[in-house]
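Tutorial handout. Part one gives the primary structure; part two gives the three-dimensional structure as tokens.
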Amino acid sequence: MFDLATIWAGIIAFAVLTYVILDGFDLGVGILFPFARDESERDVMMNSVAPVWDGNETWLVMGGGGLFAVFPLAYAVVMPALYMPIILMLLALVFRGVAFEYRWRTTRWRGVWDAAFIGGSTVAAFTQGIALGALVQGIEVADRAYAGGWWDWLTPFSLLTGVALVVGYALLGATWLIMKTEGGLQAVMRRRAGPLALGTLGLIGIVSLLTPFQDPVYFERWFSFPAAFYSALVPVMLFVAAMYLFRGLATDSDHAPFLASLALFVISFVGIGISFYPMMVPPALTIQQAAAPDSSLAFALVGTVILVPMILGYTAYAYWVFRGKVDPDAGYH
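Part two.
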């Protein structure tokens, strides 16, 4: 149960989850950018994530690089299956990153870079959701290679998961801004957070109901006894997190809505793990089948054990240094 391949699968899953919950809220800020009432609010929104956004994307690099290094067969299958959404995601992240730098250095073209920030954030979130949906519905594999078509990733289910992730990231962004801002902008985000929370929970429910029907293995894990007893804890925990979220919004708490929104994502990720395990690329490749030789896994693990605590340390330090409310008079520029 705790062989090197399984340990590495846990590390990759941890990197992906960390990316989702960290970069999710700053992508959400970009998605919510059009709802700012004036230029000063847009400046505050961007300044709330400016010190940490690039560090958040470290985990995307680790997840992708780790997959290439320790699960090369999975990487070789997933990439051809998801070339289009992955390329669009990377281009969107590039435009979004450039917008962080350029919008402060121009007045005439600021609207263009605002649009790049909004579009890059939304497209990145949407394509990440599409990639997730395509993985959940399964990737066709034959002779250890991708055997599907160019457009297999584009289905109603993958589009639904794409929309779900956009709405979920927007919820993270709204609750982040509740925690980091004051005054009118905070009040606007409190009003936005309620409908976004309802939308996120509704979409989680729809995706969760459809997922067991994507593969018979999923259905068995969720509804056969005694596995169903443990799987039932996931919706229970989602309900508790949702109540905590709405209570935080009702009581004007600054921190509770954001923490509860993060919990929704973590619990949903656990649900995906229940469906996937022990598959690395559903429904054909298990963790052990996709893994590199044990000697390569052991070698890579040595560096990871050293580097991951360092990354966690500087990430925590960055958030500690920039804790508290955003000062509207201080800026990224």
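Part three, for discussion. Strands lie at 141-142, 145-146, 279-281, 285-286. The longest strand covers residues 279-281.
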